[in-house]
Amino acid sequence: MKTGGQIIVDCLEAQGVERVFCVPGESYLAVLDALHDSQIDTVVARQEGGAAMMAEADGKLTGRPGICFVTRGPGATNATSGVHVAKQDSTPMILLVGQIGRRMRGREAFQEVDYRQTFGDLAKWVEEIDHVDRIPEILSHAYHVAMSGRPGPVVLALPEDMLTEQADVTAGPYVEVAEPAPMEQSLVAIETLLSEAENPLLIVGGSRWNEEAVAGLTTFSENWGLPVACSFRRQQLFDHLHPHYAGDVGLGINPALKSRIAESDLVLLLGARFSENPSQGFSLFGIPKPNQKLIHILSGAEELGRIYVPDVAVNATPGTFLSAMNARPAVKTANQTAEAAHKAYRNWTDSLPQTVGDAQMGHVMEVLRDMLPSDAIMTNGAGNFAIWLHRFWRFRQYGTQLAPTSGSMGYGLPAAVAGKLRYPEREVVCLAGDGCFQMTMQEFGTAVQFGAKIIVLLIDNGVYGTIRMHQEREYPARISATDLQNPDFAMIATAYGAHSETVAKNEEFLPALERSRKSGKAALIHIKTDPEAITPTTTLTDLRNSR
After folding, report:
1. CB–CB of 428/447 below 8 Å?
2. Which helix (H) or strand (E) covers residue 230, if one does?
3. Chain mean pLDDT for the chain
4. How far is CA 241 from CA 270, 349, 392, 441, in A?
């Protein structure tokens, strides 16, 4: 006989869980007690939103659900930010939430929340485990739901009295989910469309990728002479220096790539939903019928035809589709299209622009290109600072990017902690703006406590940059709610016991980075930039004067 808390931990161990992220609470003390005797590492975050983002980032890296525990009420509502990231990024994740005792329901007991209502639009499935003997069944189902089709988050509520009850049950088997695969007639239709196309383009994104699928993507591109573009914040799916790479389809898109998509006679969407940001506000394709011929390959059948009606719809994972196509003889097309697309990408990204100010992001990116290894994991949250990373960093391999397609501020730091704990031998660098960093700044303490020796590049321009950019364009010289009075971030990092640096001039960045890499600690480099340098191509003054 074991308690509900022990059974939950047994079930997680049976699924190969090595690490959970949490903020402790009295509502699930029985689970915390069971974790004490387990082989699972328990990472204690400072706020539930940070814990949930860490779990989401871990799910991105492994393809299996990241696990997060939080307490009832405010613990659960704090965690919704990470659940939202998991939903929009199609990441497998399981959030386990403490709950009031079962006899207390309906009385608005202390911190009582109806989780089915609260998470109904954010999670793929929400359930409350009322019977201790059903824990193995429900956790097994949670894994299947989180990983199947279009992956996403599952929320399970755990009544605290259920967690102390006992049952004689065994953890379920290790979960592997079905891999939908293309049908023969779909493959024949795709071959026909590819053979007829004169100006095709392949756009990749989404989830359910792995190293084998990424390697298959390169083969597919070479076999058919296809230029490959990566959807918003999914640049890790294709080597940026491969002669077929066309660039990223996201915010601040290369105008040449935008034109190429519009002028293509055939677009293959592989793994990507092609939502608002990559579609440039749903403007690149006609809705519901695109002007281009469209092949849409997606693991989630419910998403096929949801916005765009494709000429060929294929319910398949990236891996099964690419394996099937690469097993067939290719009719290789001329490479001029791919070569031209890659040349346009290089023209857009090779030269790093100079901007105003003594410390410039162009110089920072140039140093990072020269110094960091190709397997470094790069993380970011949201803000104009991320434009520099997305446009000018060369992603070379899979598993090197943790970025929220949901546009969540504060994501970069907790994601970096999760990335470093998952791959301690690799360098993990977080780029964060001053506004973005302060959303989850407290998780720097988590990094130090658990030995996650990350490097944070904190780009401080004293404003909420993206909002100020829009503000100056729409309401020139009417500044409202976008200025920030910031602390000395380097002193805060030092107070946590980390290595810290302050950079105010270009020439200070390289030695600061070198010292940070050699410090043997988590490190923060506080880079003071000029708010005028709002993007790589314009200034706040230019925006203000453009009206």
Report:
1. no
2. strand 228-231
3. 95
4. 20, 11, 12, 34
Which of 347, 371, 403 is a domain's end point? 347
Name the strand (E) or helix (H) holding 175. none
Query: What are the structure tokens assigned to 219, written together?
Result: 């083969």
Please give the tally of structural domains in the chain: 3
Residues 199 and 335 in one domain: yes
Its domain, for residue 99, covers 2-167
So what's the pLDDT on residue 333? 63
Instruction: Identify whether residues 504 and 358 lie together within a single domain.
Output: yes
Q: Are 186 and 314 in contact (CB under 8 A)?
A: yes
Residues 6+ apart with CB under 8 A from 158: 4, 8, 27, 28, 31, 96, 97, 98, 99, 128, 129
Residues 141 and 30 in one domain: yes
pLDDT confidence tier of residue 106, bands split at 50, 70 and 90: confident
pLDDT category of residue 334 using cuts at 50, 70 and 90 = low
Here the tokens at position 421 are 């704990």
Residue that is last in its domain, among 167, 197, 218: 167
Helices (H), 248-384: 255-263, 318-326, 336-349, 361-371
Say if 139 falls within a structural domain.
Answer: yes
- Cα–Cα distance between 22 and 512 in angstroms, integer? 33
pLDDT of residue 109: 75
Residue 354 DSSP code: P
Write out pLDDT tens, residues 243-277: 999 999 998 999 999 999 999 999 999 999 998 88
Put simply, whether the predicted model's pTM sits higher than 0.90 gets the answer: yes
For residues 34 and 85, membership in a common domain is answered with: yes
Average pLDDT over residues 410-434: 98
Q: Is 395 found in the same domain as 267?
A: no
